[in-house]
Amino acid sequence: MSERANQLISDILRRVHEAIVENNVTYEEYQAAKQWFIDVGAAGEWPLFGDVFVEHVVEEQAFSNRSGSQGTILGPFHLPDAPLLDAPFELPHRPDESGDRTRVTGRVTDVDGRPLANANLDIWQADAEGRYSGFMPGPPDGNLRGQVRTDTDGRYEYVTVIPGPYTIPLDGPTGRMTAAAGWSPWRPAHIHLIVSAEGFEPLVTQLFIDSSDYLDTDVAGAVKPELIVHPEPVGDGEFAVSYDFALAPARTPAIA
Ligand code: DHB
Ligand code: FE
After folding, report:
1. Short-list 167, 157, 147, 163, CA closest to 98
2. How many domains does the chain divide into?
3. How far apart are the CA of 234 and the centre of ligand 2, in A?
4. Is 187 in the pocket of ligand 1 (CB under 6 A)?
5. Where in the sequence does UniProt note compositional bias of the Basic and acidic residues kind (predicted)?
């Protein structure tokens, strides 16, 4: 028996019971909700549901006092072991990859602005149609996933395409719930990153494209103003984004 489990489970159930009383929930609604829980499991959508509707509050709560750059949700589409890229640091992509070609550059520092050499940036994103490789039909395995390291000055760069907005699957139970409530099922266009360096707290974050639709209505509630970037046209139809990351010190000092 864990006191923590008792406290948390009791509190969540009490709030569900209160919602039932306050909204006069009927037997029909209870049976429909029960079937919906079953459907979410059968469709394998619990990770999707959790990351869309719950994770953002956990992230805000867990890191409200962390110094350095803002993080946001991890989401369900990270895959470990993306290839470490060499110059010219292009994320793997199809020869005819659609979307505006963009060079992302910046620095990784500590919270006092000291450069962190050999920091790692693990990058993943949807293609211009909002599809993630490894999870959705379309992009080949490994598409638009890669890692880069900072140089001795803490500088990094990589080349990618601007992703498209993403909609949660509309035909599954999570999409049906979203439609029933009248909410937008879209996430604005974003690039995921995990920035890490020895002795620092890993930063799980996303960069949001300022020209994207849905910045104000992200179904996953994960947009923060500090994470919105403006791709600058640099000629030949290409764009550039600059973004610096400051990492907080690791909470547990490394054991020597
Ligand atoms: C989901 C998708 C994302 O691209 C993301 O960043 C977070 C959540 C999702 O569908 O659950
Ligand atoms: Fe995403």
Report:
1. 163
2. 1
3. 26
4. yes
5. 91-105
